[in-house]
Specification:
This protein is an all-alpha fold. The chain folds into 2 domains: 90 residues, Leucine-rich Repeat Variant; 156 residues, no CATH class. 68% of the residues lie in helices and 0% in strands. One of its GO terms (cellular component) is cytoplasm. This is MROH1 protein.
Length: 266
Amino acid sequence: LLKNNVVNDLVLLETMMDNVTGRQKDTCVSVRMLALRGLGNIASGSPDKVRKHGAKLLASMVNGMDDKDDPHNLVALEAMSSLSKLLDHVEERDIQSMLLHIAIRIRPFFDSEQPELRQSSIVLFGNLTKFSQGDGEAFFEQIVNGLVTLLLHLQDPKPEVVKACKFALRMCGPSMGCEGLCEMFLNHLREERSLHYGEFMNNVCKHLMQKYPEMLNRLVSTNLFYFKSSWVDIRAAAPMFIGFLVLHVDEDHCQQVDLDQLISGE
């Protein structure tokens, strides 16, 4: 019902929204999950009301992501999916105060064993970048924190996760402060285009080390974490990523890398 604009004609929306919001404290996980789905559907049924009640709806989604009694993350999954729908209609001032909290909260889901959680969290991260201009430096940190993961998951075994990573990286490109990198993401990560991963990563690392050589150790350390990934293609991609980084960094920055740590793969 909330997905249909009939709620506007019947002047029912506010009453229904209050009732559904109240169900977020229900003891049943499925009820809490469906409550969030209903609130997310307002983006389809009454987008104007999303603008009016944006702060309240966003708070519901953040609460859903922080649900402590959700062992299979069903509520968190619905919260991320619904939040992506709402973001097209909320006022920027309503999302700004929650932007970093959401970005930090969803980051662990990028590596979830559940492909739906990987996909939904990565798509949401891409959608959040639309609002990053107001807090550029802090959100840039979040992009850097997630960059290695997004690039490695271009080798994810699930096509829907690969598609999500392409979207998120295209969205992150303009905030990276590197025109060459942004162009690469836009040109090579189009949904319909197949990707020559090795060649692509070689060029990505070249741009990264030209623009941000001081990030070398940080990028290497994050890649080391994936040497023990349960996904074989991602395990293979991580050392290749490090190899290209070291190949393109100038000598002055090479001492950043702890060779003992790198050789032991830990």
